[in-house]
Queue: 4 jobs
Job 1
Amino acid sequence: MKKRKTLRQLQKMKGEEKIVMITAYDALFAALLEPYADVILVGDSLNMSFAGKEDTLSATMDQMIYHTQAVCNGAKESYVLIDMPFGTYPDRQTALSNAIRAYRESGADAVKLEGGKEKADIVRYLSENAIAVFGHIGLKPQSVRSEGGYSVKGKSEEEKAEIVGSAIALEEAGAVALIIEGVKPDVAAAVTQSVKIPVIGIGAGSGCDGQVLVWSDAFGFFDTFVPKFVKTYLNGGDLVRGAMAQYAQEVKAGEFPDENYTY
Ligand code: KIV
């Protein structure tokens, strides 16, 4: 029986060993990635990467649960984190009933929600009710419509202080870890040093306790737009297009299947 990485193990990694986090949305990829991933995030980025939508905002709780179940079926050892999608945590009670659904129905170890000190009250309520919560600060993709686009955060001293203050407020409220996205590296480093919980960065420089990437970005499957912070570890798109072209050509030519692939 394989055992999942525990929250205690993750938290002990702060300052000792970098935490590796990557997204996955299905069992197949979860199984491929988990030998190397401390945490698998079922992010609401699946609404873009998997479902082809413009942003993350239309992802639903049902969809997140479905994909998280699949990830938990494929990955038995990584810690699994589920995103609370847009509109599922506007107040304490709604947040708690959705987080309870996530725990009961998906098999996730923790939930993640976007927001700074304004969400501390909700984080506290979930924590008091035995839910492990990851905060998500800095650039918050669920705010893209209200903010009119994506932009790097923490460019001014005022913004930096605001982000560090949010990290501290979330830790005090009981958050077990933080994701920090799209900020200047000095901001992420300051946050990492200001709290005792692990801080995992994306587009936030190297001064965090770990890193997270969206799998389809990291492996070159989503190649229409590659943000500056994404390192592409595989030309997945080219490989799949090449393989598909060869398969199609062999079928058209009557070359596949030959006797090697026939009963
Ligand atoms: O939804 C997601 O994949 C995320 C990452 C970008 C951290 O929240």
Note: The chain has a mean pLDDT of 97.
Job 2
Amino acid sequence: MRHLIDFGDLTRREWDELYARAGKIMDDPGSYIDACRGKVMASLFYEPSTRTNFSFQTAMLRLGGTVFGFADPSSSSVAKGETLKDTVKMVSGYADVIVMRTPWEGAAKAASLYSHVPVVNAGDGGHMHPTQTTADLTTITRLLGKVDHLSVGLCGDLKNGRTVHSLIKALAKFEDIRFFLISPRELAVPEYVRAFMQENGMPFTEVTGLEAVIPQLDVLYMTRIQRERFVDPLEYERNKGVYVLTRRKLERAKDKMLVMHPLPRVDEIAVDVDDDHRAVYFEQARYGMFARMSLLADLANQPRLDRTPAVEIGTKPVCRNPRCITRTQPYLPPLVKKNGGVDCCAFCDAALT
Ligand code: NCD
């Protein structure tokens, strides 16, 4: 693995190694205090973040490395109209690894074409968020002992929730997972995710109600309705507050079920659930730091490329997704990939037809 853009970039073996290292770090943090000594992480956050930004920063500091970057693009040259390509080329001259979060889908992949050092996708619009998945899988493995043979309920905004898309991609690498996709119909998983699940033989049931399926679940993964991604404010108004997990609803859940959430929470988990032994979302955030330490210990120590491969410049964007990075950065090559036999944009996964 050279970059982490999409969980599909990791083989199951690479994930097992990453998790094993995270386990060693948790059990004996002292043995990793110099793992990134002398290394520098660039942190480019074009979108708000608390956990992801802080956990990456503290991960690097705990490995003996240092961090620079911005959490507000208006303080960088982006505000003067610099392209993503130029920013990345330059930043990759200063740093050993780049961690970036953007509102544009496919932006981390675009950056990886031009970077001399590994790029980590810390969230690209409503598309993917693979390092949250490393936190999620670490949590499940530590607390349930395994990820295979589980019933997993994903609840909330499955259309715009990038953590859900990445988690589904990752769970394709495990055995016998049954999915309950719990969402309002208009916030169901995007077509490319559904095609991925069908192509990989991942059994799933789509439902709109949470209560009826709770008793069957080993993991309930709650998500926020992603207000900032709605083009139509009325669609948000219709769907906000649609799921609220309460103590009463939890009464029918298995005693060992995990209640997870990538956070931030708005109102989808009542505060009184926090004291239930099944609520693990704050631990999940802490596991995320260890998972990111494990990732950085590998990526920040990779050799820097002297030259990046030549990229054939596109002339006009072929992708019609208005949030795709190719729409705002038109020099990008028109890369295509297949999802479930359909031609899709290789940056944002949207179907090209
Ligand atoms: C998530 C994100 O940014 O996608 N948060 C996180 O990284 N922990 C979830 C969200 O914002 O709802």
Note: The first strand starts at residue 40 and ends at 45.
Job 3
Amino acid sequence: MELVVRNTSEVVTCDGALDGRAEDTLGRIPRGAIGVENGRVVFVGPEAELPVVSKGTIVIDARGGFVGPGFVDCHTHVVFAGDRSDEFEQRCQGKTYLEIAAAGGGIARTVTATRNATEDELVALATPRLARLRAQGVTTAEVKSGYGLDAESELRMLRAIARLGSAQPVELVATFLGLHAVPAEYKQRRDEWVRLCVDELLPVIARDRLAAACDIFVEQSAFTHDEARRLGVKARALGLPLRLHVDQLTANGGAQLAAELGAVTADHLEQISTEGIAALKHSGTIAVLAPTSTLFARAKPYAPGRALRDAGVPVALCTNCNPGSSNSENVSLAMGLACIENGLTPAEAYLGFTRIGALAISRPELGRIAVGGPADLVVFACESYRTLPYHLGMNEAAHTIKRGQRV
Ligand code: NIG
């Protein structure tokens, strides 16, 4: 074995059955140990059963902390340029996110700044954001385009994401979000922008594998159900999983649309209705909650995480790191808010950033620790996963390990 992790309080594999209680899915092994060879897990079990460690093996002493799978942040917008701290100030003074967007701020501001940035600049700006995620144990992150909103700038964003994926250790999964906002120059002919995304951009992106999924912002200030259907159907036809930002700022039946289109995820859901919860219940769609943005954008209520879980809907969590609605890379804060405000238990919140987060990006091998699976691991300084939401907003990660390498 090239690497061993020992002297843990427990290993939380997140590899139990998904259809039962969250506590069972956690698959905890008291005083567990992990062995790694060629970047894959070759042993996970009680330390007493760990095979003899040879001389060249790197041994990480967890010093009584717990070990879990690398976090998967399944919804981020970390590639962007510019700053919107003045909008934050306006929100603190009572203006809403939608009022600011209607006055020319919001996503449009970041689009202008991002269009003016070179690919090198976008890479340089996103690198420290990814480093902050990595320091907390994030080993995989999804990153969306959507701040380019013309063909050239969207492709530049996606190329920047691809470059970042090999330039630093956090594995990146790109999502095309061409329908994030109606570009200023298409305001009077929005149909043309939708057509361009459907007929020209998405086929090229799928062909060149520049994105692994397609996302759409369905909202009063963004795109309608019909527009989302047009791109969503095309994405499915091209073999790209569909994700939807829905029911975030206004209730618009978005969860029902996600179910209808067979979306892999329905993200946000602050305004989801009882019918929406019922629609998700039988759809297989994963609810992705972004509680930091509910707080930061002052867009209450918080999404009904408890009701969603109780209905049997899988719930993932994310930082939704972006310059407008969630200028935060803080995993512990998102987990804590998910418990305090969305009504999840610490076990459910932990699974939201591990096993279920991985399902949200269609990467079921991630977010769990299993023999044969990738050795993406976090060694924490605390004894229990419960400390992560409880020690609100603080970073407990001592070592982040990506494919068997300490990063
Ligand atoms: O997920 N809702 C749409 N997109 C982002 C916000 C983007 C922005 O304000 O720049 C979100 O919250």
Note: The chain is about 35% helix and 20% strand.
Job 4
Amino acid sequence: MLESLRGRDVISILDFTRGELEGLFEAADSAWKLIEYRPLRGRLVALAFFEPSTRTRMSFESAVKRLGGDTLVVTGEEAISVAKGENLADTIRMLDAYSDAIVIRHRFEGAALYAAEIAEAPVINGGDGRQHHPTQAMIDLYTITKLFGGVDGLTIGVLGDLRYGRAASSFLLGLTLFKPKMVYLISPPQLRPREEVLEELSVRGLRFKEAGLMEVLAELDVLYVTRIQRERFPDPSEYERVRGSYRVTLDMLEGRAKKGLKVLHPLPKVDEIDPRVDESPFQAYFIQARLGVPLRMALLAGVLGGDGVWS
Ligand code: NCD
């Protein structure tokens, strides 16, 4: 089912076809069965998280270990001097020598691609700067597929920091592989998507419009919320101007939204969602986080698994 994934680098969600993603989602549905077969037995996956991360790192760690593999974990920039390109290259060579696959998160855009060019082992991008976060986009699309039976025909709002958020951009790029009815981009003016992302969405034929939340809330099937990426603002005063500029409350949802609306969020959330939403039927972000493990298990088994993993 996932033969085409074997040995592949995972840099951008657009490295995949719709068919491959659908195969992956199907595999994720039965990922728990893999525990018994331990397809990663004897394999080591390096988790090189040069940028802070708890959930993504733990979710990968959980996936690798449940498949019978083990992890080599490097965290924080202090472990190496990544400010110098050459040192990153040497670190990658070392990880390549010690492990069978490398998951990398880095604050520099293009770091994962750079690592993939150096390493012989497959490289999985766990987030590079504001650019790509392909496994998060896979989880988002998988969650929607589980909740609605598919992505086609849905009306989806993407709210928040569309400028600096790599999860939001990757999700939007991933949506271009499907046929949603309409995608609304909802952000404060300073946090509109970057031109190159908007252009890619147009070229790929996604039906999208920029809009205000209250204008479109009643139409939405999915509301994908993201936090403001404070750490990526070049100027702290720019952050001060937009902080707290949007918040999804339970009253808002109960007053305007469809009963079946589902709220997604890549997490961590800060103050952009009223905690009362957590206990409501609109909440789907904890389901989404939970689905991260089987999705990453399916992906790792596809990339690293030997023959017959899926037969
Ligand atoms: C996202 C990230 O790191 O890009 N988090 C995640 O991987 N779950 C989103 C974020 O940090 O806001």
Note: The beta strands are 44-49, 70-75, 101-106, 123-128, 155-159, 182-186, 208-210, 222-225, 262-264.
